[in-house]
Amino acid sequence: MRLSIIIPTRRFTDQLAVRIEAHRQLFPAAEIIVVEPADRPDQPAGQVSSGSASMRIDSGVDSTVAHGIQRLRAPRGRGTQCNAGAARAKEPLLLFLHDDTALPPEAPGVVSNAFADPRTQIACFRLRFDHAHWLLSTYAFFSRFDSSLTSFGDQGILIRRSFFAAIGGFPDWPLFEDVDLLSRARRRTRKRIKKLPAAVTTSAVRFLENGILRQQLLNAELMLRFSLGASPEALRRRYETRRGLGDSAGVDP
Fold first, then answer.
1. Which of 191, 2, 198 is nearest to 94 (CA)?
2. Fewer CB atoms inside 10 A, N or C side of the chain?
3. Single pTM value for the model
């Protein structure tokens, strides 16, 4: 399958390397692109944390290729980093995947079946958490349905590269970039986002650190404020303040 897997992250860690190897086992021929922020405090501008020689690409993002993984640097922000990865990608199908998310064993089959139909332009997996709790299970259950309240980037977004370009890619936002992309996709296709019959597994760490109910209430508050017109940057600041987290958790703001 001709697939580019694009993973925005704040830091390339050993845990991420293990996940990438698992992705490679499922999709041996896939192009894997990891996009790190250009303004990492431990990485001077113009350098890339790799033993390979760096090269400059047209988008102005530094790039290296190490062990079959392309590593780019782009301005911080998941939307911006995803766009940088897409600009680098060569394959006709893109998979945007969070750095704390694992693909299911059946992923190759369900992806192949879904996109064998040329009418399928975009799809998401269902969701599962790596921690058992009835509230998390309830939230995950509703991910099998598509709506602006049940479809997000942590489910993995599969999209044809031509369609991604046609709808203008992600907005350069630090938050809700996935909601905006999926909304524009629905308007363009006049269909709901296709949900694949398999679930990715994502980390529940933000729920466990902040409290499961408290995190859900925060998510609902932010979604409501976003729907009422609050700027993504203002919502990012609110999110950071409530979480009390720094640079440790993925690319989430």
1. 2
2. N
3. 0.86
Task: Please calculate the CA angle 61-67-73 and round it to the nearest 5 degrees.
Answer: 15
- Exposure string of 73-108, with b = 16+ CB inside 10 Å and e = fewer, is bbebbbbbbbbbbbbbbebebbbbbbbbbbbbeebb
**For 9-46, how does the pLDDT look when each residue is reduced to its tens digit (9 = 90+)?**
999 999 999 999 999 999 999 999 999 999 754 443 33
What number of H helices and E strands is found in the chain? 9, 10
Fold of 3-205: Spore Coat Polysaccharide Biosynthesis Protein SpsA; Chain A (3.90.550)
Dist. CA 209–CA 211, nearest whole Å: 6
Sort residue 96 into left (φ over 0), alpha (ψ -120 to 50) or beta. beta
Look at residue 14 and give its three-state secondary structure. helix
pLDDT digits (tens, 9 = 90+) for 43-82: 433 333 332 323 333 344 555 555 678 999 999 999 999 9
